[in-house]
Specification:
The structure holds 2 protein chains of 2 kinds.
Chain A (H helix, E strand, L loop, with lengths): L1 E6 L6 H10 L3 E6 L10 E4 L19 H11 L4 E4 L1 H8 L6 E3 L7 E9 L15 E8 L3 E3 L2 H9 L3 E5 L10 E5 L5 E4 L18 H16 L1
Chain B lengths: L7 H6 L14 H11 L5 H10 L2 H4 L4 H8 L4 E2 L2 E2 L9 E6 L2 E9 L1 H6 L1 H17 L4 E11 L5 H21 L3 E8 L8 E11 L14 E6 L9 H7 L18 H16 L5 E4 L4 H12 L3 E5 L12 H6 L5 E6 L4 H10 L4 E8 L4 E5 L2 E6 L1 H5 L15 H6 L11 H12 L8 H4 L10 E3 L6 E4 L7 E7 L2 H6 L1 H17 L4 E10 L6 H21 L3 E7 L3 E2 L2 E2 L3 E10 L16 E5 L10 H7 L11 H16 L5 E4 L4 H13 L2 E4 L5 H6 L6 E5 L4 H10 L4 E8 L3 E4 L3 E4 H9 L1 H5 L8
Parallel strand pairs in B: 5-6, 10-13, 18-19, 25-28
Antiparallel strand pairs in B: 1-2, 3-4, 4-7, 5-7, 8-11, 8-12, 9-11, 10-12, 13-14, 15-16, 16-17, 17-22, 18-22, 20-21, 23-26, 23-27, 24-26, 25-27, 28-29
The chains are: A alpha/beta, B alpha+beta.
């Protein structure tokens, strides 16, 4: 499994995502923001950080980078894409996922271990979980307040596209939404950081590993099919 | 400032022109000695350079004489000789396997009062660039913060701003914040302390020292453009204290751009790796004045700089302002001519602006031109390294004997179990012992994936070598109340607290950085505190075998005539051969046996109990036993290696009472203990050198044996329990949910927020 990890100027958790891919048995491939080709990867991760400083709005500039143009095209063809934190913001700005992430309701950055409820397992990145299972994943963000109009939220619920909900909402997100997916289920964005929950030395929970188990299972099935 | 430049030629023919030396913070004799050095009056640019570089902040003129004592310490750690010592941007410690670590703590106190967010943010930015300039990748930060009373109106302005600034900058750089301190005390009202520590990692071969050598080499300024921010910050903000009247000094504080700094880090590390840097200097206080004069004076040649080449944010800046600007996120490198093209290409890759602004020249002069005319012609050593040195008068305060005679041991004590329980609750819910999650939850502690321990653990710990598991531990500590009562002993007790916090994680303490925050050096009683604290640290470090590798001095911390309590913040570095052996702080399993290591004496003066229960500060601080601490450290290195203990928690502020409560609250497990002798003293005395440990019953025999081998007193107190109760047999039983509520509420309540629900 070759997993591309994009580095934008200001990406921070690219190191962590790369390590997580390796620890979970994959082969990480570094992708540079200025490159307009993405070849020979089975999946892509848009990591956390502050791409281009996020001075306009989280992800608003990264969405126009050359590498994103290609990733948007490949996502449309079914390439598994996982957007974590800033990566989730980029996916929303790129309209691969609906909604927007606004400033946390309490107006401060929050970093803590967070309980999540798994709501949809019908995605490339979450098929190893069980529905309604509770998992522990780190959150750390200043702009993670998921916001969308009522119709969009209703549609997400109807179409089983809310992937995770917070148990104890840390940021004011609508409907406790922590992560969502596209119709096809190949693009998942979430504010929590599964790449920080893969090594028992640095976090009590290793629930993040199952994101990689999920995508690997999907890929092996997709390849045999 | 003048529009037409005050050139060297002009200065020569106008010797009697009146100059604003006093406004720039220079004393009359300092101005006279500048004239004597130059054998003419300085130009406006030269005056600007000398005034910032000779400020207390940059020149250490009042402290230099005393700081020398740190260099008398053996320049070797328990792990071998230092790779770079005091005097460089930061000291470098060999940790083995070819890895080296550099670390340093620095203050940004005054700017953080004027503009809390930017002051704190640029404090982090500055210390990170210091570490970067050594050739190291910055890998973590810590912060030691001190504010006025928690309920003071100004604290509600300064505290959230400082915390958001530390977090905003560090988070955006992708550096985990491993912990630090949050302390509230009246003496910091109007003068908060923001001490930021950064640690960096490199291979031995990658150490880079700041100097400009090689005639013909190019001097390249790279990073942000130069603007009008922070002009005079170094001399005006850091050297004088605040007056109620007078113009606002807000524009003097620098504004940070962490995104630029992140690019600067990645770009600089790539430049190092490509071997393109022969000398490097970060831009700290005093901007271009500092970088050019320090680089030039440390090298073998002179330097010529053309100010017209400096990219400006504001084209109307006068040459003096360009030299004094403290615009952030800038670095200066010395590069061989044949490497300039490659250098520029790497900067372009990272979208970092880089400009050749000068070159290394024959001779030993620093020459600076502006619009084709010479505005600076100086010997850079006279600017950077040969500033004035003062042997300030020292006087032991008259009040100290009276304060020491007023002992907390004489204060009324609780005389029943319920009273003990009530006092424990009050301590746990007091501002300096309460939960600081509101602060630390604003810091990313996970990024980079190597944070093996972070707050609220005893110390931070990072994995350095993924193959062997080699890692480091870091703690910052200071007990200013002890230092107020006795600066010599108080500095040692702070040193020992940091030493213990590192040691009980299983790491071997190896080296120290310090941030010495004091009042005005012109006050002989403050100078006495300062000199005593240094004497205490030097004696302490010698006995512990841990050299001081660098740090910083911050004077003039006072509001009106009220100086802060002497606050020598200690950063201790430790090394652990395998981070998998680390020892955590909280109780883990019901049934584990609970022991206390170390002897408890009747020592209540300066304690948290005296402060919280009686509002009292007097008497003599606890005794110091340096030798016992060395045994304690070697005990824990062995215990960690054998995986002998489950948890260890340092006893410091609040004594055993607080250590027990925190150990229980970590994982929500209760404890049942019996206290031999006086329950009150056992719970609240602050005797130094004690640690609470929990151990599997099957390992109790080994624990006793190891403690005997290290000649450490060990007392069995009881065991971890399934119940949600902290029980002291025959005295009281407190429910953990009540303890937790009490512990969590002070900071959110003071800020008018609802306490956390989870």
């Amino acid at each position: 499994m070759r997993v591309g990890v994009v580095t934008f100027p200001g990406s921070l958790d690219d190191v962590d995502a790369t390590r997580a891919v390796r620890l979970c048995g994959g082969q990480p491939v570094a992708l540079w923001h200025a490159s307009d080709t993405v070849s020979d990867v089975d999946a892509v991760i848009l990591p956390g950080g502050f791409s281009y400083g996020d001075y306009l709005r989280g992800g608003a500039i990264a969405r126009f980078s050359p590498v994103m143009t290609e990733i948007i095209r490949l996502a449309g063809l079914g390439l598994p894409v996982l957007g974590i934190c800033n990566g989730f913001q980029v996916l929303c700005e790129a309209h691969l996922l609906p909604g927007v992430l606004t400033r946390n309701a309490q107006r401060t950055f929050i970093c803590r271990d967070q309980t999540l409820k798994v709501c949809s397992t019908d995605t490339v990145w979450t098929n190893d979980f069980s529905r309604d299972e509770e998992i522990e994943i780190v959150v750390k963000h200043g702009e993670g307040n998921y916001t969308a109009d009522a119709d969009t939220i209703a549609r997400l619920n109807d179409e089983d596209r809310v992937v995770f909900r917070y148990v104890g909402n840390p940021n004011g997100s609508a409907d406790d939404i922590a992560g969502v997916t596209n119709r096809r289920g190949n693009v998942v964005g979430l504010m929590p950081h599964p790449e920080h929950n893969v090594d028992p030395l640095t976090s009590d929970s290793t629930d993040g590993r199952r994101f990689f188990v999920s995508v690997e299972r999907f890929l092996s099935v997709a390849m045999t099919a | 400032m003048s529009v037409v430049a005050d050139t060297v030629t002009h200065a020569q023919v106008t010797p009697s022109t009146s100059q604003p030396w006093a406004e720039l913070g220079l004393k009359v004799d300092e101005y006279e000695s500048i004239r004597a050095i130059l054998r003419r009056r300085p130009t406006a640019c030269e005056l600007a350079m000398y005034s910032v570089m000779w400020s207390e902040h940059c020149s250490y003129k009042s402290s230099k004489l005393h700081l020398k004592r740190f260099s008398e310490l053996p320049q070797t750690t328990p792990r071998g000789p230092l790779l770079a010592g005091i005097g460089e941007n930061a000291g470098v410690v060999d940790i083995g396997h070819g890895w080296a670590v550099t670390f340093k703590i620095e203050s940004h106190n005054h700017p953080s009062y004027v503009e809390p967010y930017q002051g704190a943010a640029t404090g982090v930015g500055g210390i990170v660039r210091d570490i970067l300039a050594m050739g190291a990748r910055p890998v973590a930060v810590m912060d030691s913060l001190r504010f006025g009373p928690i309920d003071a109106p100004d604290t509600a302005r300064v505290l959230p701003g400082v915390v958001a600034g530390v977090g905003g900058y560090g988070n955006c750089l992708g550096l985990p914040n491993l912990g630090g301190e949050v302390v509230f005390d009246r003496s910091y009202a109007g003068n908060p302390l923001v001490n930021a520590l950064c640690v960096g990692v490199m291979r031995h071969d990658d150490i880079h020292l700041a100097h400009a050598s090689g005639v013909g080499n190019k001097v390249i300024l790279y990073g942000a453009t130069t603007g009008g921010d922070g002009i005079g910050g170094a001399s005006v903000l850091a050297s004088e204290t605040f007056e109620a009247s007078g113009p606002t000094k807000r524009p003097s504080v620098q504004v940070g751009d962490p995104f630029m700094e992140k690019l600067l880090i990645e770009c600089t590390l790539e430049l190092f790796a490509a071997g393109l840097i022969t000398g490097i200097q970060d831009f700290g206080a005093a901007g271009l004045s500092c970088a050019t004069s320090e680089l030039a004076s440390a090298g073998s040649g002179g330097m010529h700089v053309d100010l017209d080449a400096v990219p400006l944010r504001d084209p109307t800046l006068a040459p003096e302002e360009i030299l004094m600007s403290e615009s952030q996120e800038r670095m200066m490198a010395v590069v061989r001519p044949q490497d300039v093209t490659m250098f520029m290409a790497i900067c372009a890759k990272w979208d970092v602006l880089a400009t050749v602004v000068g070159e290394v020249i024959e001779g030993d002069r620093l020459l600076i031109d502006w619009q084709g005319e010479r505005v600076v012609d100086v010997d850079p050593r006279t600017v950077a390294h040969e500033g004035p040195t003062y042997d300030r008068p020292i006087a032991r305060p008259l009040w100290i004997d009276q304060v020491r005679a007023d002992r907390a041991e004489e204060l009324p004590r609780p005389d029943s179990g319920p009273q003990l329980a009530d006092q424990l609750m009050r301590l746990l819910g007091s501002p300096n012992l309460c939960d600081v999650s509101w602060v630390t939850d604003q810091y990313d502690r996970f990024v980079r994936g190597d944070s093996v321990l972070a707050q609220p653990e005893n110390a931070g710990m990072l994995r350095i070598d993924p193959d062997s598991g080699l890692g480091i531990a870091l703690s910052t500590d200071c007990n200013a109340r002890f230092a107020f009562l006795d600066p010599y002993r108080g500095a040692q007790l702070s040193l020992l607290e940091a030493y213990r916090n590192v040691a009980i994680t299983g790491a071997e303490p190896v080296a120290v950085t310090d941030c010495l925050n004091f009042g005005s050096p012109e006050d002989p009683e403050v100078m006495w505190q300062f000199v005593e604290a240094i004497r205490g640290l030097v004696d302490g470090c010698r006995a512990l075998g841990t050299p001081v590798t660098g740090g910083n001095v911050s004077f003039y911390n006072k509001t009106g005539e009220q100086a802060i309590m002497p606050t020598p913040t200690i950063g201790m570095l430790g090394v652990i051969d395998n981070v998998a052996w680390r020892i955590k702080s909280g109780f883990v399993s019901p049934g584990d046996a609970v022991y206390l290591l170390g002897r408890t004496r009747e020592e209540l003066s300066g304690s948290a109990w005296a402060e919280v229960i009686h509002g009292h500060l007097g008497g003599e601080p606890p005794a110091v036993d340096l030798e016992q601490h060395r045994r304690l450290a070697s005990f824990f290195v062995a215990a960690a290696r054998q995986r002998l203990v489950v948890s260890a928690h340092d006893l410091s502020d609040g004594g055993l009472a607080i250590a027990l409560a925190e150990s229980c609250l970590r994982h929500g497990l209760g404890v049942e203990i019996a206290l031999p002798g006086d329950a009150f003293l056992n719970l609240f005395s602050e005797t130094s050198g004690r640690v609470l440990v929990s151990v599997k019953p099957s390992n109790e025999f080994e624990l006793i044996k190891l403690a005997n081998e290290h000649d450490l007193k060990l007392s069995r107190l009881g065991q971890v329990s399934q119940s949600e109760q902290l029980t002291v047999e025959g005295q009281f039983s407190l429910r953990l949910p009540a303890l937790r509520r009490n512990w969590q509420s002070p900071i959110p309540t003071a800020l008018g927020l609802t306490p956390p629900t989870a």
